[in-house]
Amino acid sequence: MPRPIPSVDRLVRESCAQFSSRPFLHDAEDGRCFTFGEFDEQISRAANVLRELGIGKGDVVSLFLRNSPEFFPCWLGAIRLGAISNPINLGLEHNLERVLYMLRQSGSRLLIIEAAFAQLAAEVHATLPELPIVFIDALDGSALDWQAALTKASPTIPVVETGPDEPFQMIFTSGTTGLPKAVVQHHAMVADGFALVEDHFGLGGDDVCQCVLPFFHVNAQYTSFFPMLGTGGQLVLFEKFSASRFFPTVRKYGVTYISVVPSLLTRLLSAGLPEDRSLYASLKFIVCGAAPLTAQLHREFVEKSGIPVANGWGMTETGCWGCHMDPAKPVWGAMGKPLAINEMKIVDSDTGRPLPTNHTGSLLVRGPNVFREYFQAPEATHKAFRFGGGWFDTGDDALVDKNGMFWFVGRGSVDTGKVDGEFVNFLSLDSRLWELPGVSEVCCVGVPDPIRGQVVCACIVKEPSATLDDAAVLAWATEAGLAYYEMPRHVLFVQEIPKGDTGKIQRRVMTEQATAALGL
User: Fold this and answer.
1) Which residues, in sequence order, are CB contacts of 113 under 8 Å at separation 6+?
2) Please, what is the angle between helix 187-201 and helix 8-18, to 10°?
3) Hey, which residues does 257 pair with through a beta bridge?
4) Which pTM value belongs to this model?
5) Could you read off the pLDDT of 78-121 as tens digits, one per residue?
6) For the domain with range 416-517, which CATH number is right: 3.40.50.620, 3.30.300.30, 3.90.180.10, 3.30.1240.10?
7) How many beta carbons lie within 10 A of that of residue 309, not counting itself?
8) How many whole angstroms separate alpha carbon 326 and alpha carbon 200?
9) C-alpha closest to that of 499 among 201, 229, 292
10) Rounded Cα distance, 286 and 325, in Å
11) FRET partner for 347 with CA separation of 20 to 30 A, picked from 100, 173, 247, 466?
């Protein structure tokens, strides 16, 4: 196992020095390739430019950048100065109010952005004229010529000492239960998380990771970037996921490992898997997380592709890691078992008392990979750790079986409901209805009912050639043996299921849309 390191920057510096001449970052969009040494030089140049702009230890630098080689010097250059990086979700491009909230709440000293988002930058400047804005690829409205400044800057910079418990990044949650909270991530979350990756997944310097997920989320950072950086592997970077380019890129670069979200597996199946498996023979396994992976989707993808898929669970608050399963020994529909760095348990949500196996309760996590606080949100932090002992209440409902395997049940009232007083698991219903021929995607939600309080509405995206109608869905549900309270009382055919930028179904949004469409 790799030795623990005190900071993210130390990991970057030491890995880049150790593997200096080896190729590291490949841009799948234009074919550029950077060695570890070149990668590190760009970070130091960016750090020097940021220092000239007045950025120092403890300052917050916000980023609104797409996946590209230019992202990393900005992200890691700030961290090299001991500053705190704040990558912002690109899905908020047209949500000025939310972006302004994040910039103010984080106390950002600088915003780094691209010309593609010039309209957003102009709107931010109009409201926050005191906030410097730097475009990495344009001059108009930029505090300086970024590319020219990088070229002139020194490729070296002294180390800024930071401890393992100091922050290096904050990432805002999605805010599905209110205003988004900024998760403060400290250096040890990466150091301890990286220490388990090589052992748990057997990754090393010969591995090549294809990254198709956005770097404003922890998934891409913790499951793709840091493992390849720390082991001397290679990273193939997509700007965004492409089903048509997925397998050709695997073959071109000899990709061995990929991290995805469940919706991407669905898109790959819909696009059609290559008949010739030799085209992706290098791919050892896929890691899947960020949203529940149904047993049906898990099994279908593995059986049709022959590619092992390791399902797992994690959160921004746990440094993406939490539990995973052995890709060679899948348990369809399960989350997996806790990783070596953290403990997990199921407790009564009211008392905090541990529950026996196969009983649904609140999922708690404790370990060095768990965050310490929400930025400037003491009440939210206290609530998250209210059971004491360093245990973080994830807000997820789960259970653990007799074999120590954890199973996701739902997240609060979003994924669960009650019909006639009976508990209904919408995730489980999704999984069942997904078996219905002709269903491409499904999201079951609870909608108001004057008698039962709430009933199930099945929101379905049909396969292009499917001839499904309400009667066919209800007939199938009856034949499948769904309980009376699980039976869909409404069927709504939709063009798409709303999802966040990580591919997670936004069930709350779907509920609102279904309620409105049904006139309830």
Assistant:
1) 63, 64, 65, 120, 121, 133, 134, 135, 136
2) 50
3) 209, 285
4) 0.84
5) 999 999 999 999 988 888 988 999 999 999 999 999 999 999 99
6) 3.30.300.30
7) 23
8) 9
9) 292
10) 11
11) 173
